[in-house]
Amino acid sequence: MAQVARTPRRYKYSRDKNALLARLKRVEGQARGVQRMLEGDRYCVDVVQQLNAISAAVDEVALIVLQNHIEGCVSDAIKEGVGEECIGELMDVMRRAIGR
Question: What domains appear along the chain, each with residue ranges and CATH number?
Answer without folding.
Answer: 15-97 (1.20.58.1000)
